[in-house]
Amino acid sequence: MRRLLTLTLVATGLLAPAPAVAAPPAAPAVVSAGSSPREDLSGQRLRSPGSASIYLVDPEGYARAFPDIATYTRFYEDTDGVEVNDDLDDISRGPAFSRDAYLLRVVGEDGIYVVSDGVRRGIASWRVLERYGFDPDRARPVTRDRADEIPEGPAWR
Questions:
Q1: CA pair distance 151, 157, nearest whole angstrom
Q2: Do residues 16 and 10 make contact, with C-beta atoms less than 8 angstroms apart?
Q3: How many whole angstroms separate alpha carbon 16 and alpha carbon 82?
Q4: Are 84 and 47 in contact (CB under 8 A)?
């Protein structure tokens, strides 16, 4: 009887089937007039003179802001290595890291991932990890099953 009621409600449109859940789309890069991506600066942490905001130049050459110091400290131990850059406004902005962004590692495996906006991006190698200065000790340990629940994006290279 319950099945018949459910089928009737679906057929009449009173009960719609649950929509499929898709992976969140990658946020588009924000390009300002007169600015351009700078892949040659990938891995650098920058801030403008007189500003406390810290940006990381991502693999695609876009400056991505850390929304707050709490987010920043999930990637780095301290602000050593942050450079003051007078030309930061000339670098295209990418999407800011989400407030819940973090580093992730799968227990029993070597890889580290950057997780932001609900998407995990595998760091391509330990050499890349070092170029970005990420602190692997800050990576949140999770099981493989838990990591696989997070949609995977392109590699962080």
A1: 18
A2: yes
A3: 51
A4: yes
Q: What are the distances in angstroms from CA 46 to CA 22, 33, 133, 150?
A: 34, 20, 13, 29
Instruction: Determine the pLDDT at residue 35.
Output: 84
pLDDT at site 34: 56
At 32 the pLDDT is 56
116 lies in some domain: yes
Q: What does the alpha-carbon distance between residue 115 and residue 118 come to, in Å, rounded to a whole number? A: 6
The total number of structural domains that make up the chain: 1
Closest by Cα among 101, 112, 157 to 139: 112
Q: Structure pTM?
A: 0.78
Q: Is residue 44 part of a domain?
A: yes
Q: Is residue 156 part of a domain?
A: no
Token pair, residue 118, equals: 């609900």
The SS3 of residue 20 is coil
Print the domain residue range for 112: 39-148
Q: Give the SS3 label for residue 41.
A: helix
The residue to which tokens 């089928």 are assigned: 7
Residue 73 lies in a domain: yes
What is the average per-residue pLDDT within 101-129?
97
